[in-house]
Amino acid sequence: MAAAPICAATVPDEPLTPSAGSALVDVNLDGPYPNAERFRAVQVLAARAFGDSFRPRVSSTTLALAWVATGRRAAYLTDGHLRDSVHFSSGIALCQAAGCIVTGLRGQPVHTGVGGLVAAADQPTHAALIAIVDQQFASTR
Length: 141
Prior knowledge:
CATH topology: D-Maltodextrin-Binding Protein, domain 2
Strand content: 5-15%
Structural class: alpha/beta
Radius of gyration: 17 Å
Largest sheet: 5 strands, mixed
Number of strands: 5
């Protein structure tokens, strides 16, 4: 008698729903650091405003961006090089398709300006993170 085939349960498709509810923000701490003279992601973690509003996580870039798109993380932040990187391209596209706020480190369009990436589930989360990043840039002038 042949064994019955093993089938995965059918799960209905659901639209991606970004959510800042977790308050978890993934932060990439791997170099290189193209803005090191003016910005360091590790300093975002030490900022009082960050600690008052968010909880940090450090993990895989591709997975972290997928978690933002699906609502498991509030945001993702990095100073890394994005262009032509397999670590960012699919995650950025996924976040954009889900309706996340996706910009460069200073709030500019992705792949312009100082680079980096802030991908947030919603506008308030994005604005709060950009304000924290801006404080670092302002303090190094």
